[in-house]
Amino acid sequence: MLRVLLTNDDGIDAEGLQVLRRALAALEDIELAVIAPDGNRSATARSITFRRPLWVAEVPFEDGTVGYACDGTPVDCVRLASLGLIEGFTPDVIVSGINHGANLGDDITYSGTVAAALEGIVLGIPGIAVSQQSARREMDFRLGNLFDFSNAAAFTAQVVDRLDDVPLPPGTLLNVNVPAGDIGGVEVARLGKRIYQDRLELIEEDVGGRRLFRVYGDSPVHDDEPGTDLSAVSAGRIAVTPLHFDLTAEHGMEGLREYDLARLLGER
Asked: Which of 100, 235, 252, 260 is deepest in the core (most CB within 10 A)?
């Protein structure tokens, strides 16, 4: 029996989560639990709630099962599961999504969807983050409000169903991005590079001297480099990218050692 925790960053009532919940519930030998934020927590990344306790409410679903809504972040939801919120349930895998919008390239560092799966890696639990491009095929996770989650849900359910036969490597999560429309294949791809077009725009200034700024501007573009997740989704293919948590820049360590940083202690 594979114990699956389903969460997201769009909220427990989000269509993407509910479509995926039904697809996972239809699998055999799956024990499914749902713990998700009580509202939208998009772009919260790996933020946690530690200055106050967390409210958790039971939420009934139309099939007679229940989930749990938390007033914290996606990472909080994973922590609640790992610490025993649901009696007798400890997850074997974290599935996060389906996100309303893609999470590609540099965007993953902002994504609450990816952060929830990444928290599983921190806890020694493999994870899968799933995101769906909007029907208008925007490449910006902030845009779009029409989605068809059927392909993403079916593909993710098949991946989960085969985890016993093809387990994820230790310390690895899969970042899955599904394009809109007909699927032209599946590509194992590396993260691509976003080119952000943000700008500082003054909106108004009040009598007290405070200024209101808009910081985040036009939709980012991307380098359509072959082999990247951005290129794959742009071409209509599902992009599957293995990610890990180790951020150490191994290639920079030897140079730092050669510099002899310890000598700086005597140069104050």
From this structure: 100
Burial of 185 (0-12, 13-18, 19+ CB in 10 A): exposed
- In sign, the C-alpha dihedral spanning 102, 107, 112, 117 is positive
Instruction: Pull the structure tokens for residue 38.
Output: 């009580």
Percentage of residues of the chain with pLDDT beyond 90: 71
Q: Is residue 212 part of a domain?
A: no
CA distance 82 to 89: 8
Give the structural domain span for 71.
Answer: 2-194+222-266
**Which pair of tokens denotes residue 120?**
């599983």
9 is in an annotated binding site: yes
- 99 belongs to an annotated ligand binding site: yes
199-250 pLDDT, tens digit per residue, is 888 889 998 889 998 887 656 666 678 899 999 999 999 999 999 988 899 9
The CATH number for 27's domain is: 3.40.1210.10
